[in-house]
Amino acid sequence: MIAECRECHNDVSDAAPKCPHCGVRTPVITRKKRIMTWLVFLIALPLSLIGLFILFLILVT
Ligand SMILES: [Zn+2]
């Protein structure tokens, strides 16, 4: 699928690892990728907090 480069705003394939016009890496950040990044963040953050909490309980008791 053709999308717009985030740097030079030229047409570029959303599967292209590099923009053929300006050479920027990952020229197109798809909505799917953005949602995946947020999902990973939203899952990883509470998990690490829970992990720290458990570690704290182990250390204190
Ligand atoms: Zn570009």
Automatic annotation (TrEMBL):
Ranges that cross the membrane: 35-60
Key words, A-Z: Membrane, Transmembrane, Transmembrane helix
Domain of life: Bacteria
Protein name: Zinc ribbon domain-containing protein
Species per Swiss-Prot/TrEMBL record: Endozoicomonas gorgoniicola
